[in-house]
Amino acid sequence: MNSNTSTTPNKVLVVDDVETNLTVFAKVVSQIPETEAVCFTSAVKALEWAGQNECVLIIVDQSMPELSGIEFISQVRSRGNSYTPIVMITGHSEKELQREALKLGASAFLGKPVDPVAFVSLARNLIQLRGARLETMAKAGAAHADQQSAVEALFAQERATIDSFAKAIDLRDPRTGDHCRRVAMFSEAIASKMGLSMIEITQLAQAARIHDIGKLSMPDRILNKTSRLLGDERDAAKKHVTDGTAMLSVFTTPLLHAAAEIVHSHHERFDGTGYPAKLAGPAIPLFARIVAVADTFSALTSRRPWREAASVSIAVEQIEKESGFGFEPKIVGAFRDVMPQLLDIRAEVPDLVPAVTR
Amino acid sequence: MGDTPILEISRLEEIFEDDTAGIADLLEAAMGTGANNQATLRDALARHELDAVMKAAHAIKGSTANIGGNEVAEVAARIENAARAQTWDGIEPAAIELDEAYERLRAAVRAYRAGL
User: Fold this and answer.
1) Chain centroid to CA A304: how far?
2) Which backbone phi and psi does A44 adopt, to 5 degrees?
3) Is residue A35 classed as helix, strand or coil in its secondary structure?
4) pLDDT tens, A290-319?
5) What is the enclosing helix (H) or strand (E) of A40?
6) Pairs across A and B, CB distance < 8 A
7) What predicted TM-score, i.e. pTM, was given to this entire model?
8) Which chain B residues contact residue A120 at CB under 8 A?
């Protein structure tokens, strides 16, 4: 027997290899409002149907030739249907079997002969429970989706803010813009080698793009000076870390907060002799410790109007000398390990400052 | 034949309400299934296979209990339980009892239809 599978929304799947039992069950099911029975004598066909159709309740006999009731329940549950209640028809004395069925996902048991009043009452309760459970799942899903889209919108907004600050740096001074790009890419490579999480690496790569944002307020006479900075000029240049921090102080979102920390602390030294706060060791935010190494490598290997760029080997040597002093040894180690990648990045974002003319 | 009713029609009336023709059709169908089940049980007995006897008796019990064929269901349950306990004790006489109970059930079904 295989009754129609047409329009009524609430279907009760009934599986029993004895056709007359199905007739009885179908009749009992018809006493539950807004439901109809979909009956199968073949457990295999029933399983196939259950995989393609929604039903509010499953009634399954235990003793069947193709699949036992327990095997049927196990298959339904293993295919991801965890919310449709399943009533197994079995003898009241078969406690061991019932325990096993419960473990596999049976919701309740009925004995033969089926008491129609008890059956209808049980079925209605189980159907209501299913509805409540689905409703809860839907609400949880909607709340999660709302939360997800809010988080995604926040990320997009943070990224757009970083983009616009990076653009401002580029427009103010393309050389600083290129330097920021390189430092961000170097930092990403080092952080990746250090085993930071994907979220941290992405955040660092974005935030480091504006580590020199404070240079937006640096006076032209200092920013564009073609000779080495002296005395007061050097102090004025150092202000770019506090000015930059002030520019970002209004932001409280994670990425911009991370950017503010980098801006503020990328000139601190691991031994506590840096600026502006003389922070030491782990008191310096990790991102800033990484950017400090990347920043120095980019600066040393770039031309300045008053000097040629240092060779890569000299730059590496100087950074290694500062391991444990200016920089955290672990970060210097990772920096050394990713050198081939850093050289690729240098080729990708070259230093376009003209050669020094004397 | 004990005190167990041969056909407890009130159960089906509770389910089918006033659909007496539906009840009659169901009973006829059940008798057809019953004949097949009886043949399966006889075959298992002839082969002297307890496991097959248990399965056949279980099928008879399941198919008759739901239609109110209480006496047949009760005798079938005895056969099933004995077979499950791996003993032939009482199975042969119970099988004869089962055939007789089935005959009475068939007669009750015919009487029900005739009374419609």
Assistant:
1) 41
2) -65, -45
3) strand
4) 999 999 999 999 988 778 889 999 999 999
5) strand A35-40
6) 50
7) 0.54
8) none
